[in-house]
Specification:
The protein is an alpha/beta fold and 338 residues long. The chain folds into two domains: 2-141 and 304-335, Alpha-Beta Complex (Quinone Oxidoreductase, Chain A, domain 1); 155-282, 3-Layer(aba) Sandwich (Rossmann fold), CATH 3.40.50.720. It has helices at residues 41-48, 135-139, 141-153, 171-182, 194-202, 217-224, 242-247, 270-276, 288-301, 316-325; strands at residues 2-9, 12-19, 29-38, 64-72, 84-87, 118-122, 126-128, 163-167, 186-191, 207-210, 230-235, 249-257, 279-282, 307-312, 331-335. The strands form three sheets. Strands 3, 4, 5, 6, 7, 14 and 15 form a seven-stranded mixed β-sheet that branches. Strands 10-9-8-11-12-13 form a six-stranded parallel β-sheet, sandwiched between helices. A two-stranded antiparallel ribbon has the order 1-2. A hairpin with a 2-residue loop joins strand 1 and strand 2 (12-19). The longest helix has 14 residues, at 288-301. This is Enoyl reductase (ER) domain-containing protein.
């Protein structure tokens, strides 16, 4: 079978295609025929040596994927051959808050990921995918969709009529748009071009501010909320947006920090958090139980993930470049097998 491995050179890494034997599932393990995987910002950060996590030496990259159960090992009871499944981003985080030990089961980072024709995973990491959803759509869910779902519900569940601010047109932001609409919330967004603003409005965003033509976009967001500010912010960029995100948030509102696309700094004054009662929380993916709850909600409303482009396995390098360009609207997917 074909598999991609990350070859390190200093702090950076290069994905390299190899021919390998088909793996065999052990106790409580499942052999999966991978149909599709999707890329996240952190996958390109790993190649640049910028991702702050321990990466398995010569490991298979990419945490997000979906496929079919080919065979099961001894003691497996959660799935059977032929089941259509997706893989949760951590093989050990089943429910409850995150604890440091869960890092050891981080798919595509601490352990082998999914950019291969077949992989072996612990049964506890697997979730069944809805019949209406394609493998390419299901592959887009584990990191970006679960992160958006968890962020919107981490401090307090999003309520109908509340307002959410999202940033850009990446996977997490667009899933946050879709889920916020399912909850009956109003969605505002900032983006870098009028073209992307139009695309966001087509996807259901109520109002969009172009931050290039309107650098004081926080003033516009406040105006769109009658001066009150939004209830929640899905903070993607980090350094270049966090201060304005706080200024755009209502007293007692929530900022869920899920990315660092513009850098690791930011300089949010503690006095702003204190005097306005803001909750600023890091929100990284979520447990398998959240994944399953999210899938139930998506199936109830037949929510289809927004996919930017699908690349064949042979052109996985082009998929990485597409994500690196920042021009995507939605998820970048690699079709591994038909």
């Amino acid at each position: 079978m074909k598999a991609v491995r990350l070859v390190k050179a200093g702090t950076k890494a290069t994905p390299e295609l190899r021919e390998e034997p088909l793996p065999t599932p052990g106790k409580h393990e499942v052999l999966i025929r991978v149909h599709a995987v999707s890329l996240n910002y952190r996958d390109t950060a790993v190649l640049r040596g910028e991702y702050p996590a321990k990466i398995k030496e010569d490991g298979i990259p990419i945490s997000d994927g979906a496929g079919e159960v080919m065979a099961i090992g001894e003691g497996v009871s959660r799935v059977k051959p032929g089941d259509r499944i997706a893989v949760s981003c951590s093989t050990t985080w089943i429910g409850g808050p995150f604890v440091p030990e869960y890092h050891t089961g981080s798919v595509g980072f601490a352990i082998d990921g999914l950019l291969a024709e077949s992989v072996v995973m612990n049964e506890q990491a697997l979730v069944r995918i809805p019949d209406y959803m394609s493998y390419a759509e299901a592959a887009s869910l584990p990191c970006a969709a679960v992160t958006a779902w968890t962020a919107l519900n981490k401090i307090a569940p999003l309520q109908p009529g509340q307002t959410v601010l999202v940033q850009g047109t990446g996977g997490v932001s667009l899933f946050a748009v879709q889920f916020a609409k399912v909850f009956g919330a109003r969605v505002l967004a900032i983006t870098s071009s009028d073209e992307k603003a139009a695309q966001l409005k087509e996807l259901g965003v109520d109002a969009v501010v172009n931050y290039r033509t309107c650098p004081d976009w926080d003033h516009e967001i406040l105006a769109l909320t009658d001066g009150k500010g939004v209830d929640q912010v899905i903070e993607i960029a980090g350094e270049k947006t966090i201060v304005k995100s706080a200024a755009s948030t209502r007293v007692g509102g929530v900022i869920s920090v899920i990315g660092f696309a513009s850098g690791f700094g930011g300089g949010l004054p503690p006095i702003d958090i204190l005097t306005r009662g803001l909750t600023v929380t890091g929100s990284a993916i979520g447990p398998r139980l959240d994944f399953e709850a999210m899938l139930a909600a998506m199936a109830r409303h037949e929510v289809h993930p927004i996919i930017d482009r699908v690349y064949p396995f042979s052109k996985y390098h082009e998929a990485y470049r597409r994500l690196e360009s920042g021009q995507q609207v939605g998820k970048v997917v690699i079709q591994v097998t038909d």
